[in-house]
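Please check the following for our workbook:

***
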Amino acid sequence: MKNTSIKRLLRYWKLRMYYSISTDKRSKYPSKMSDSEKVATSIFVSTLINPESKLYYDVQTRECYLRTEDGSLFIFLESRNIKIINSVYGYDVHISSELENYLSERFVREMNKRRSAFKQEALDKVEHSLENTLLKLKTQC
């Protein structure tokens, strides 16, 4: 009985070490935020998940940019800052590094979803075009 409890304890610690070292971990939504951070986050996320919004990413500075389709709202996720510009006013909201990491990961995931959908759409067009070409060749012969 003592031997099995030691094995369980070792297994438990191995799993804890594995999960603590794992790099696949997603950033969590920060539990402590100011009211301005909450409002800026909700604006950022609602614009991000809107399929009509445009997403831009600067590779050199690693900054994320969002724009609504009609161009009435621009959002910039910068280093420890969110800049929100509507048609009249501009707002700078200072954010924590945890929130910045969370929002940038959400942005990257959304960007990957859109990229995958774009790529699949392009591949579907190629397959459709190839099938049409094959049918034309068969009808000519």
